[in-house]
Write a structure and sequence with these properties.
alpha+beta, lipopolysaccharide transport protein A fold, 2 helices
Length: 180
């Protein structure tokens, strides 16, 4: 008897998923959300907080993604330190873990680094950020860098910039030590 109940439950579940898939038109999203306020937690602690005016979920597509056509604001916490990123448009590809932020992208890290770009890609799987567009980065010491494109680890400890100009502030002590 128990075996029949289990088989029936699994058969119903598969049948329900097939009906759900058939009820969605091929070119339609799975869901549309308004005024999104989403918090991700890990071990009871909030690690990120996403705010968006709208979300269009295409996770029913063969290459699933979520689109934020009216922009996104995301707050991240690591070791109690907050970083924030905002953009006028965003898209997240579920299968690859790639996020594409576009138009007026501003990233402010916990250590006061400010990055502005017209487009920024974040590869969540490899913990890497990059752009092939113009960008400006300002450091908390006042130095800055304007460039055409860059690749960087998400914590900016490894940073490779191309076609750039800027100002680097060097402490006087380092200069005197190098002169000896």
């Amino acid at each position: 008897m128990a075996l029949i109940v289990v088989i029936t439950l699994f058969a119903c579940d598969a049948n329900y998923k097939d009906k759900q898939r058939l009820s969605i038109k091929d070119d339609q999203p799975l869901a549309i959300g308004k005024q999104i306020n989403l918090k991700y937690t890990d071990s009871g602690k909030v690690v990120s907080h996403l705010l968006a005016k709208s979300l269009i979920d295409f996770s029913n597509y063969e290459f699933p993604y979520q689109e934020f056509p009216d922009g996104v604001e995301v707050h991240f916490w690591e070791d109690g330190e907050e970083s924030t990123v905002v953009s006028d448009y965003a898209i997240r590809y579920s299968a690859t873990g790639m996020i594409d932020l576009r138009e007026n992208v501003v990233l402010i890290t916990s250590d006061s680094l400010v990055l502005k770009a017209s487009q920024l890609y974040w590869d969540q799987s490899n913990k890497w950020v990059f752009t092939d567009q113009a960008y400006q980065i300002k450091f908390k010491d006042g130095s800055y860098n304007d460039g055409a494109r860059f690749d960087s680890s998400q914590d900016f400890t490894e940073f490779l910039s191309r076609k750039n100009a800027g100002v680097q502030l060097i402490e006087q002590q380092e200069t005197q030590e190098n002169a000896k």
